[in-house]
Amino acid sequence: MRYPLERYRNIGIIAHIDAGKTTVSERILFYTGISHKIGEVHEGQAIMDWMEQERERGITITSAATTCFWTQVREVKKAADDSQRAKLKKEKEHRINIIDTPGHVDFTAEVERSLRVLDGGVVVFDGVAGVEPQSETVWHQADKYKVPRICFINKMDRMGASFENSFNSILEKLTPYAVVVQLPIGSEENFQGVVDLLEKKAFVFKGDHGENIEEIEIPREMVGQVEQKRARLVEKIVEKEETLMEKYLAGEEIGLDDLRRVLRKATIDNELVPVFCGSALKNKGVQFVLDGVIDYLPSPLEINHLKPIKGTSPRTGEEIIRQPSDNEPLTTLAFKIATDPFVGNLTYFRIYSGVMKKGTYILNSTRNNQERVGRIVRMHANHREDVEEMFAGDLGAIVGLKGTGTGDTLCSPEDPIILEGITFKEPVINLKIEPKTKADQEKLGLALRRLADEDPTFRVTGDLETGETIIWGMGELHLEILVDRMKREFGVEANVGRPRVSYKETVRANAEAEGKYIRQSGGRGQYGHVEIKIKPLERGKGFVFVNQIKGGIIPQEFIPAVEKGIKEAMDRGIVAGYPVTDTEVTLFDGSYHEVDSSEAAFKIAGSMAFQEAAKRAQPVILEPIMKIQVITPPDFLGDVTGDLNSKRGRIESLSDRIMMKVVDAKVPLSEMFGYVTNLRSMTQGRGTFTMEFSHYEEAPKNIEQLIVEGKK
Ligand code: GDP
To answer: Domains (ranges, CATH) in the chain?
Structure first.
């Protein structure tokens, strides 16, 4: 069945670890799996079987994008028989794609890729703890991308749960725009159901899994509170639209449709955030969150922060704008590469415009190669569905693409476009990892390959001479988690070194040098002789080799060997053994011997010449500088900036975000070890930060000395 775009929702369930994201997701998949059965007899047994089976097999909620269907409770309640239900399905059923969001928010890469493709979020809180520091991090990330949100205060059944306190912590710590749309009936062990404030109706959840929703009378002791909270909600809504405001002030009753329409618009515009409550574990309230997703979160047609999607033409460099429509040329973003135990390599994509058809060729415009769409699958909770085509606004996965990476644009070959990619920064931190046994060596190899496939910011290098494996990542925590996964998921036992900063070296001046490798006494001789010039290049230019040899002073066949020798010397560094970069090397003279010259001799000569030249060219160490953003309550701003200054940081801007101060700064990576803990203690646990690589910069002399001595 083809769903019109306005009946699509692409959402993420966003939560601090332990708030109940997994339980909420499971319940969503459960209720959506049986949504068409609500009200049927005998369903109890069927549901049980389904749940048992799923429990054994493990629901694929770890899939990067899972699809499900939902018709709102109030609509289902209107349908009296099967034929009406069938009609309802046709007219009101929505397709909800749930995009997996990382529980850890410390790697911008993971967060960015999920926030890039989702249109709205359900933020889950623990009803006892309310807003926790980690939930603040996620929240501010979502603020940055202007993702419309609704909130779900979960665990209302837990001892110590308080809707009021949790809601107030959202108001105080996250957003003044939060509005209560539901009230809990009872609390802790007496938590029974919810009152919908707009409808002024109370509901309880019956059946083994809360699948039967029954309307009850609003408990007498709640009537006053319901009136009062509803009035406040209505006020907040009518403020958003002048004509409604006028009606309201004139004392007119505002209809439900108007209230919902304006609350929807305000939520999508990030001006209001509806707050729901329930207990996923006790099967209470999750269905209404799904109703809320439909009522208040945007369809792909309404996403303000993306609409219409922009890109550039790879042919002309001009800006191209695509509308979210099937009639536009195909424009998709590959947002995650994963390995599926059954079908192998899966490339998850989101279609912004056009239609993706099985069996066609598409262009990977980021890498300029063609790919064939052999198989398109849609991931459901309990199975994988092969589909012939997919449409604008949708999410799915292609099986078996070879040359596509995370963040690449896949598009129509006739109308190429490049979307802004998901940019991944250079991994600037590394550590040594040493398997304990031969068996671990093999497991490690497999684990590293798998993890690197999934995570574009994770790299592995091996040192053939020492047999050492070095892994590279974006930050301390990133490597910590990868090492943990290696141990837990792949059972690798290994010794792990301390994380180290990936320094580089470069030269600051021009210099010349000669390299001679001549051995001509006894046996076969060796003869390699080169003269080179080196010159500093701008940051980020890497290594450039220029060959100015004319007239065969050095035969052409030996030139690549010279270059290779130079490269090897560069990798070993001059100052402290870090790779040399941003340097141009020109080979301009030399000589050879008819018999004794060989590639090996020229390689050594090249290497010797480079080492000598580099020493004369004022070599220096480059250190990675990170771009960091700290979000802190205003009270701690002074401590945070003072601390950054003492870390050789440069504060670039101070700004306000809802209830928080935002500090943008550049700080050398070597100063940032342990900053998570550091910041926590400085801000009573409320400060959060993100960090990504910015650029390499010359290290000051005193720091260089420490690096050379191995103290930094
Ligand atoms: P995640 O880490 O956010 O995915 O959280 P989980 O869904 O794994 O839940 C963390 C813990 O909280 C588990 O022990 C759940 O059983 C429990 N939990 C989740 N939802 C509820 C709830 O509504 N009430 C109670 N009492 N516990 C819950």
So the answer is: 3-294 (3.40.50.300), 310-417 (2.40.30.10), 432-495 (3.30.70.870), 502-616 (3.30.230.10), 621-707 (3.30.70.240)
